[in-house]
Structure formats: structure tokens, C-alpha cells
Amino acid sequence: MKNSPNPVLKKLGFSPTDRVVIIHSDDIGMCQATIDAYAELDEASRISSGAVMVPCPWFLAAVDYYQSHPSTDLGIHLTLNSEWKTYRWAPLSTVDRASGLIDEQGFFYQRFEEPQEFATAQEVTLELEAQIQQAIAAGMKPTHVDAHMLTVLHPKFLQVYLSTAYQFGLPAMIPRWGAQEWQNRGFDLESSEKMATIIENYEEQGYPMLDHFTGLKLNDPTNRMQQAKQALANLPIGLSHFYIHPSKDTPEARAISPDWQGRVADFDVFMDVQMSEFLKNEGFQVIGYRALLALMPGR
Question: Do strands 285-286 and 19-28 pair parallel, antiparallel, or not at all (unpaired)?
Fold first, then answer.
């Protein structure tokens, strides 16, 4: 993270030493249980933002919720992977395996490494555009975009991800990291410098950036409240995106994902008034992506 204070903080009326956080619900529309979970959290003001997976079967139900709650802070969880074994989804832009987006079964690849290796920037651009256009055509006015499994946060696709978001006037989930932070994430020096330069160029043009992003891992649902409190307490000053994957406990959710218990635990923890009180007592300033949308150049 850059040493200089994030200019977003001042623009939003915060001090450079404030801890500002977006409590973000990922994977909305992946299945029905995610929509009910998001709806309850949103209506109770327990989260501040979420993002829908446009290629997934329950996307239109998420749009229905949006249309009945137009003030909800719902963006697009740009998706290049379909990670489950028997419950899958495919690209909107192509059925051609030569695109590098499609596995031998006709769906997105399960692991993030495959599209990073096989897909071209051109094919990824077409798919990201298709997902945003589909959401808008369905009646959404998305507040932002972010990245399922972080697949597009890669030197091959970072420029595509940001330029596509900004083409539609949407803020993107992206940290204002320098080369060292990207190296810490496992990228080589050349790639890290390339990514840092792309981000720096956009920030200089006035595009709002995050300082940090993190969230709760799904592989351990035990002591979830303590996990969440510890992870939040460890957030540095600046603007952070904190992701959770909330789901109701349904037969469908149990059948789809081996990590369903972590998803249900996320829902339970953030519905608990304890968490709201913790955020308040820790002095967090909670915002959504709508605040960043208002800062986009040209608005």
C-alpha cells in the first residue's frame, strides 16, 4: 500500500487515520440461499454492499430483489470460474473452447489458473462486457464491479478489468498497491511493477481505489464470530473491502458447496447484533460502493 493517504478518505470527509470498511457479500445469485441471506443482511443494514454473479442460474432472482430494493448497494461479481463439481455455469459471450474460457465440459474452468493461462485479454474483455451489459439489460444499475476468485487480478487481465469497469462508469475493487504488495501476493517483479503502474495511472486520473482487501476464509466455520472480530480488528487505517460469503442453510446450499458451513456461519455472524456493536465500538466507518460510485470521474 502506498505511504501517502488515500485521496478517497478526504473526498468522503474522513481523516487519514480513520478505518473505513466496506462489508461486502460475495457470490450473490450463485444459488437461491445466497439471495435470501443477502436480503436479510441488507434489510437489517448488517452489510454495506454485495455483488451478483451474472452467469449463475439465480441471477434473475437477485435482479428481482434489486428492483424491489433499488437503494441496495449491489454490484457485479465478474466471473471467469465455475468452481463446483456438479453445479456449473458457462460464459455469456462464447461457446467456443478456443476462447480459453471453457473447459471440456462446456463450462468455465474450476480453478483460477486455467483462464489465466489459456484465455486471451480480448476474450476476457468480451466476457466482462457481456456480464455488465446483461446486468444492465435486466434492470440493474450496478454500484461497482469486483472479481470472483480474484481471477482478473493478474498481470494479463488487470488492464482489461479496470478499463472495462471504467468504460461503464463503475468503480472497481482494486487496492492501490505498489510493486512490493503484488510481489507479496506471489507475482514476479516485472509483473508486479506492471500492475502497480496500471493502478497508479488510473489513480492519478481520479479513479477511487481501496487501500486493502481481505475477508473470512471458508474452510473453518468454527468460532466464526471470533474469527471475524479478529480479522476486522487487524485491518489497518484507510479504506478496506472486507468480504464474506453469506448463505442460508438449505438442502441446495449443502448439496452445492463443501464449504456451506462457513457460508452459513458468515450469515449468522453478521446478522448478530454483536457484530454491529463490535464495528461501532472499534470505531469503524462503514460505507458501501455507492459512495465510491459518486467519486468516479465524470459524475
Answer: parallel
